């Protein structure tokens, strides 16, 4: 299991606390320092079953600078969104937890973190 975090994020700290309380084995990826490539973002989107705009933090200053709210949200725009996430990792929703069964969750709630734990124990 891997968790993509920003240590300054309270939701990330909460998710780490839940994983630790369960004795889970996981790897921490500080994605602002160890920026995921476009291919890694595509892979995690596939695991999440989501599109890039679904995991984009549109309230970030850089999102407003880029005008993301105006970007198309369709197959033709997908690569543009992925490129923006790779270039500006602060836009990536956090934490993202990849479970051992090949799935992933955006762990912003206790329930989502529990899902990742359950999927990794199966």
TrEMBL record:
InterPro entries: Arsenate_reductase, Arsenate_reductase-like, Thioredoxin-like_sf. It comes from the Bacteria. GO terms for molecular function: arsenate reductase (glutaredoxin) activity. CDD domains: ArsC_ArsC. Pfam families: ArsC. Keywords: Oxidoreductase. Belongs to the ArsC family. This is Arsenate reductase. It comes from Streptomyces fuscichromogenes.
């Amino acid at each position: 299991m891997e968790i993509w975090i920003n240590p300054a994020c309270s939701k990330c700290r909460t998710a780490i606390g839940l994983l630790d309380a369960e004795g889970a084995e996981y790897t921490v990826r500080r994605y602002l320092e160890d920026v995921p490539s476009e291919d890694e973002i595509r892979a995690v989107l596939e695991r999440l079953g989501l599109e890039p705009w679904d995991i984009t933090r549109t309230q970030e200053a850089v999102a407003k600078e880029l005008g993301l709210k105006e970007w198309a949200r369709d197959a033709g725009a997908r690569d543009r969104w992925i490129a923006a996430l790779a270039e500006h990792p602060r836009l990536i929703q956090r934490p993202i937890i990849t479970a051992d069964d090949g799935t992933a969750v955006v762990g912003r709630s206790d329930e989502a973190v529990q899902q990742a734990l359950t999927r990794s124990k199966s």
